């Protein structure tokens, strides 16, 4: 490249402008002028100005190669390069040099054989030589090309001047089939010679660019006397041309910038942009009126208009006949009229109607179809013709309008389709019908439909239709090959038919019988259901093919239909699954069997099963199966295989599916040999975090399609439910056993603790359970109790707490687990190195007034999974029970000690008080006996009061002693028939009954477990109260019993004086009397004794009463366990 030319982007790969016969015939990626050869008067004569050999051959080689390929005779005159160098360059450039030499199509001559033949340059001889070579070449070949290296001119000014004279006349030698390319080395030839080269060649090739030479001087001028004057004129004209071009370029750029600003304004509406566009066009084209129309078949509507014209205004609607728009639509392209008179329009009805002398307009197309027109006009002629730049500007505006209208049109239909598909008030069929209507409107077709299709069975069944049609109706069946839908199925997506005959469908039913001329449809593969085609048809043929937007919109509607069909399928699957899994009348096994049957139907496989793997290296056992012909709980296959079928499934978390086992190495697996299972679909089932087995489906035939993501999800859902149920059953099983252990009344705490250890070892799959005392302040760990045998963990064994895993529970004050001791820094601890414990689960038990405990389970085997939250919760529950039992034992010991002290105190108090009371009573009796005659009436009364008070005090002391001994001196519990107890009490109260004329009625009373003497005391106290507080009427008493769950409710109802509500709680307080001793006798402790006795029997006692209406005393007793 010249050092005087600035470096710029390499343009060698850019195609040459113009048509196929362009300058240099678009050789070698040269850039050139827009005009073709036909437009150039001297397009046959080129001058190549180069600076190095690479640049030289980049033009020369393609020039020769193009001639060879076009069947032209080529002559190469070499000077600076040798013959071998030229041949090598041509051969490297793709020229078959040997064949060209052999045929005579190519020849290479030297300067000495041509220009300097005879030893010197002779103008006439050279012209004769070239003319002869051209004539000979054109006689035998399609054309003639010559290219010459002109380096021989260096150093000889005389030959330079003579040769330039030859070059100036070379165009006279070349006819229309000849072409010459002269090569000038700019680095070797003087600038003056290069200047002459520029002036004598109409076309230049420089820097890989073909240039139309504005400095070219024709021979008559080059050699004429007025050459200097003409040179000056040409240079001045060149300046004018360049200035004009620059102004035109600046004008074009300015309007294009304003056009872009108008169209890109995000805040402007579409209507506002059209108005600005019309104003900009008026200004750009120098016309008075701008308007945009929407055309129909026979009418037009002016959508927007700017300018002043009586008939051209926004909103005007009129006939399309006799309008300029009609002429525009009838023309093959834009219409540009500068003066109506020049084109004969002044006599046209349109001119008479609108009076427009200048008209510049283009058709606006939307989706390949005519939409309307964009027009600019004036009522006066335009003074200048329309330029290419103006035409381009008009086309840009029309294209933007078409694009924007198409986008708005597309968005409108998308918006409407979204409104339809997202409307919660419409069901699927209603949405489908609305989409059919929308599609018919969008595509200009008559009917929408959806059909079930099966390509393998060649089946087509109409499912939905948008309207009435003689042949298309729901339920109609046809061979798929007799419909256009076969095209959509074959394409696997959207397909259209606009010309049935040309497309080869002239012999199928839908064309011959149904008269369907146009079709647009899409194929929908539906997972878990029949495939569909969603399509639109018309009996009218289309004027234009379906656009890409049409296809995109059809594809979008088809995608929604696919999604909706699959969603409905999924919902149906979930509904059926829920009906099965939530049925309270079905057992777990029955539910699994029904799920397997449903899965076989859904996945189109003939067998399915739930397998259990009790041991990792053991055999799978069939828990439940369908379609297998194998009994439940049998070994499904002796060898579970290695990495195939259920073995592969249980080793991975994701579902495993193989549509065709024959394409894998699974054919070597025993399952394949025993069951001929050629397709398989399975998922892992767990119980908690532990693998349980597999849930699987299979078939003896390969599946015709791969398992889909939806099918994987559905299988995974079934597997999750089975896993959940297994875990729930396991959880409930262990919780029930835990409750049974905790509620066992006949077993001691130590026995229950051992049962708890065994349960935990089983639940957590660990070896040993233990309970230990811990004290962080002294770093003490001492084993209380353990299950199983362990060398170091035995009752009484001690260790530093910090060397055991129990330290984790003490530090955290919660349940803690450890499955990787070394990773948590316990690799060198006593528990790991000496005790050999690899897995630990424990909880801290915080106790008052005695050492804390840790309740734990351990194993010498590492655990391959973390403890689940359910396992930790279960362990926490066990720990809470242990804590409760330890605290209960502590409370019982304290209560026992307290009761013993209370009993000792009560006995001592009773003994110490009884003796003085006996002495007081004895001496009072003695005074009464000895001094009876000496006492007056008051004295005798006072003495009687003293004796009576002492007697009442003795009774109260006896009652208090009895009250304190309810828990400690009672008899052991045994079966007690309450009927017999009531009879004994009646007999004891016989005198009172007779004296008061009392009536005691009783229901049949149950047998309970209790202390007969204490229960007798309860009945006696309650009946005595009922008789005592009966009022003025004879006592009427009823003793009843009823069962309420796991307890009996015994009631004693009377019709006596009753108790005020505010006093009903006081009646059970010790020595709290509601009446004076003058009204009713008693110690005030009878009901308190009843309450204490009932509580000892695990029951409650209460009273329901209304003043003056009587009272009902009720108490509960537990139902014996055997009942």
Automatic annotation (TrEMBL):
The keyword Metal-binding does not apply. InterPro entries: GAF, GAF-like_dom_sf, HATPase_C_sf, HATPase_dom, His_kinase_dom, HisK_dim/P_dom, HisK_dim/P_sf, MEDS_domain. Keywords: Kinase, Phosphoprotein, Transferase. Its EC number is 2.7.13.3. It catalyses: ATP + protein L-histidine = ADP + protein N-phospho-L-histidine. SUPFAM superfamilies: ATPase domain of HSP90 chaperone/DNA topoisomerase II/histidine kinase, GAF domain-like, Homodimeric domain of signal transducing histidine kinase. Residues 908-1121 form the Histidine kinase domain. Pfam families: GAF, HATPase_c, HisKA, MEDS. Residues 1-27 are annotated as: Disordered. Coiled coil: none annotated. One of its GO terms (molecular function) is phosphorelay sensor kinase activity. It is an enzyme of class 2 (transferase). PANTHER family: PAC DOMAIN-CONTAINING PROTEIN (PTHR43304:SF1), PHYTOCHROME-LIKE PROTEIN CPH1 (PTHR43304). This is histidine kinase.
């Amino acid at each position: 490249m010249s050092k005087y030319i600035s470096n710029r982007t390499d343009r060698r790969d850019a195609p040459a402008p113009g048509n196929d016969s362009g300058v240099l015939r678009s050789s070698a990626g040269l850039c050139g002028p827009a005009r073709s050869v036909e437009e150039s008067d001297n397009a046959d004569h080129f001058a190549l100005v180069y600076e190095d050999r690479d640049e030289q051959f980049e033009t020369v080689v393609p020039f020769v190669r193009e001639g060879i390929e076009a069947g032209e005779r080529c002559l190469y005159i070499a000077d600076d390069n040798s013959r071998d160098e030229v041949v090598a360059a041509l051969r490297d450039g793709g020229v078959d040099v040997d064949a060209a030499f052999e045929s005579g199509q190519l020849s290479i001559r030297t300067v000495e054989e041509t220009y300097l033949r005879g030893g010197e340059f002779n103008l006439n001889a050279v012209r004769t030589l070239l003319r002869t070579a051209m004539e000979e070449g054109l006689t035998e070949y399609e054309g003639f090309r010559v290219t010459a290296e002109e380096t021989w001119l260096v150093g000889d000014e005389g030959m330079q001047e003579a040769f330039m004279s030859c070059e100036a006349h070379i165009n006279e030698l070349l006819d229309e089939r000849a072409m010459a390319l002269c090569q000038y080395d700019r680095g070797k030839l003087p600038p003056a010679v290069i200047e002459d080269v520029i002036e004598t060649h109409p076309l230049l090739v420089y820097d890989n660019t073909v240039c139309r030479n504005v400095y070219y001087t024709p021979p008559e001028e080059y050699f004429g006397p007025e050459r200097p004057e003409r040179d000056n004129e040409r240079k001045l004209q060149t300046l004018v041309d360049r200035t004009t071009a620059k102004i035109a370029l600046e004008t074009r750029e300015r309007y294009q910038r304003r056009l872009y600003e108008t169209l890109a304004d995000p805040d402007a509406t579409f209507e506002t942009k059209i108005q600005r566009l019309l104003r900009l066009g008026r200004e750009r084209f120098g016309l008075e009126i701008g308007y945009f129309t929407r055309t129909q078949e026979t009418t037009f509507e002016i959508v927007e208009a700017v300018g002043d014209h009586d008939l051209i205004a926004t909103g005007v609607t009129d006939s399309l006949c006799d309008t300029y728009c009609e002429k525009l639509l009838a023309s093959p392209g834009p219409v540009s009229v500068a003066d109506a008179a020049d084109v004969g329009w002044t006599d046209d009805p349109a001119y008479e109607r609108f009076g427009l002398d200048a008209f510049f307009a283009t058709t606006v197309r939307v989706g390949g179809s005519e939409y309307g027109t964009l027009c600019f006009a004036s009522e006066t002629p335009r003074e200048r013709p329309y330029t290419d730049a103006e035409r381009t500007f008009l086309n840009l505006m029309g294209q933007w309008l078409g694009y924007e209208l198409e986008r708005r049109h597309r968005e409108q239909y998308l918006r409407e389709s979204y409104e339809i598909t997202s409307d919660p008030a419409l069901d699927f069929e209603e949405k489908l019908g609305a989409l059919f209507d929308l599609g018919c409107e969008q595509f200009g077709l008559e009917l929408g439909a959806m059909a079930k299709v099966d390509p393998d069975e060649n089946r087509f069944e109409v499912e939905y239709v948008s309207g009435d049609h003689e042949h298309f109706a729901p339920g109609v069946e046809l061979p798929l090959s007799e419909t256009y839908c076969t095209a959509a199925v074959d394409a696997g997506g959207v397909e259209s038919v606009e010309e049935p005959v040309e497309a080869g469908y002239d012999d199928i039913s839908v064309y011959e019988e149904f008269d369907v001329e146009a079709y647009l449809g899409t194929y929908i593969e539906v997972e878990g259901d029949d495939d569909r085609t969603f399509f639109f048809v018309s009996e009218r043929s289309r004027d234009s093919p379906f656009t890409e937007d049409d296809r995109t919109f059809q594809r979008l509607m088809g995608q929604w239909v696919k999604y909706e069909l699959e969603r409905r399928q999924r919902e149906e699957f979930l509904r059926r699954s829920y009906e099965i899994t939530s049925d309270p009348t079905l057992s777990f096994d029955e539910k699994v069997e029904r799920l397997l049957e449903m899965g076989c139907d859904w996945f189109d496989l003939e067998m399915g099963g739930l397998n259990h793997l009790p041991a990792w290296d053991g055999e799978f056992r069939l828990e439940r199966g369908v379609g297998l012909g194998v009994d439940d709980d049998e070994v499904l296959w002796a060898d579970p295989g290695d990495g195939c079928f259920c073995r592969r499934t249980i080793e991975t978390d994701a579902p495993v599916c193989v549509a065709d086992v024959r394409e894998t190495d699974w054919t070597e697996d025993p399952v394949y040999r025993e069951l001929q299972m050629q397709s398989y679909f399975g998922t892992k089932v767990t119980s908690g975090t532990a693998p349980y087995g597999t849930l699987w489906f299979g078939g003896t035939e390969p599946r015709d399609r791969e398992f889909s993501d939806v099918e994987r999800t559905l299988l995974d859902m079934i597997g999750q439910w089975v896993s959940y149920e297994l875990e729930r059953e396991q959880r409930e099983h262990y919780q029930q056993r835990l409750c049974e252990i905790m509620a066992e009344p006949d077993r001691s705490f130590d026995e229950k603790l051992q049962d708890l250890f065994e349960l935990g070892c089983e639940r957590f799959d660990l070896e040993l359970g233990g309970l230990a005392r811990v004290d962080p302040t002294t770093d003490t760990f001492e084993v209380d109790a353990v299950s199983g045998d362990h060398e170091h963990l035995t009752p009484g064994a001690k260790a530093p707490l910090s060397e055991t895993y129990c330290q984790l529970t003490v530090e955290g004050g919660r349940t803690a687990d450890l499955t990787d001791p070394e990773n948590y820094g316990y690799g060198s601890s006593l528990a790991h190195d000496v005790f050999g414990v690899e897995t630990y689960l424990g909880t801290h038990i915080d106790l008052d007034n005695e050492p804390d405990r840790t309740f734990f389970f351990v194993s010498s085997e590492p655990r391959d999974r973390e403890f689940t939250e359910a396992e930790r919760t279960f362990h926490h529950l066990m720990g809470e029970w242990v804590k409760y039992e330890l605290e209960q034992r502590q409370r019982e010991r304290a209560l026992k000690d307290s009761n013993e002290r209370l009993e000792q105190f009560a006995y001592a108090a009773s003994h110490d008080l009884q003796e003085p009371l006996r002495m007081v009573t004895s001496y009072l009796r003695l005074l009464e006996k000895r001094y009876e005659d000496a006492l007056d009436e008051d004295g005798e009364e006072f003495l009687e009061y003293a004796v009576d008070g002492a007697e009442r005090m003795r009774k109260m002391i006896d009652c208090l002693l009895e009250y304190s001994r309810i828990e400690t001196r009672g008899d052991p519990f045994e079966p007690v028939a309450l009927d017999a107890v009531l009879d004994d009490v009646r007999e004891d109260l016989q005198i009172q009954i007779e004296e008061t004329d009392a009536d005691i009625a009783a229901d049949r009373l149950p047998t309970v477990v209790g202390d007969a003497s204490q229960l007798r005391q309860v009945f006696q106290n309650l009946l005595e109260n009922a008789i005592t507080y009966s009022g003025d009427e004879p006592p009427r008493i009823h003793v009843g019993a009823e069962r309420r769950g796991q307890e009996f409710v015994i009631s004693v109802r009377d019709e006596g004086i009753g108790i005020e509500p505010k006093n009903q709680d006081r009646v059970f307080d010790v020595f709290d009397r509601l009446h004076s001793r003058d009204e009713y006798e008693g110690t005030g402790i009878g009901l308190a004794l009843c309450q204490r006795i009932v509580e000892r029997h695990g029951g409650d006692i209460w009273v329901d009463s209304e003043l003056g209406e009587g009272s009902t005393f009720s108490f509960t007793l537990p139902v014996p366990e055997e009942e």
